[in-house]
Amino acid sequence: MREIDASLITEKVKQLVMDTEYFIPQDFINTIEKAIPKEESPMGQEILKTILDNAKVAAEEKVAYCQDTGYPVFFVDIGQDVHIKGGHITDAINEGVRQATKEGYLRASLAYDPIIDRKNTGDNTPALIYYNIVPGDKIKIKFAAKGGGSENQSKQKMLKPADGWEGVKEFILCCIANAGPNACPPFTVGVGIGGTFDYSTVLAKKALFRHIGERHPDPRIAKLEEELIEEANKLGVGPLGFGGSTTAVDVKIEVAPVHIASLPVAVNIQCHAARHKEIEI
Q1: pTM for this structure?
Q2: E-assigned strands of the chain?
Q3: Which residue blocks in 161-242 are alpha helix, DSSP H?
Q4: What is the pLDDT of residues 88-119, one digit of tens each?
Q5: Domains of the chain: residue spans and CATH
Q6: What is the Cα–Cα distance from 61 to 105, expressed in whole angstroms?
Q7: 227 with 233: CB under 8 angstroms?
Q8: Distance (Å, rounded) from C-alpha 82 to C-alpha 211?
């Protein structure tokens, strides 16, 4: 049994959150660099160049890439041979977010009550945390700063099994087209197919953590991902919605077993910032 102090988790999470806000993933940077000469729209090319400039300034100055510092979302794999001492892991993670928000000068984006009293919590907590128990004696923490603009354009639909892949594809592409400029393209698109109503949305969000170009291990699903990327970039939405051929940098699908009477599909849109990182303790 390996012991991990809750204070270490707090410190690691604090740094993880700040680094995620300041440093845009390198795989995205590389993808945009390759997309610029291929982008058909001159304005689209300039927007892509500006995105790279913004990322450079954020990294050099260690300031948030975007004023919307997002909803803090964590996927945490906890080894079954780990014992956390000195506090509860959820409290430790939230304390890390709290400290990062203050010390990193990050905007607090959460409200206590969704309807009656939308008072800000003041420190970007409580975070949304999904736990998974795995073999081993380590903790893997994946973090994403999920902006409101892109989250607002995400959708879920309970299709009929008879709708098949064509129905699924139509729904996904419709979501991407309707997101338009509101979700700050070029997008990363996470898709969850199967499971239940609620779990399909978790799958879609989980898909966003895969690296750009990291295809699904099932070659049949990988082929569907590539088909969606090609079709999405024919929609004409373009960088920041001003038109062009760079609408989605990637589409990633996660699947799960499903009830014979169901075909749940969730589409989780991510803005071009694609802010996510992971650490292992």
Answers
A1: 0.93
A2: 2-5, 71-79, 82-85, 128-134, 139-146, 155-159, 187-195, 248-258, 263-270, 276-280
A3: 164-179, 197-207, 219-232
A4: 999 999 999 999 999 999 999 999 999 998 99
A5: 2-20+65-146 (3.30.360), 149-279 (no CATH)
A6: 12
A7: no
A8: 27
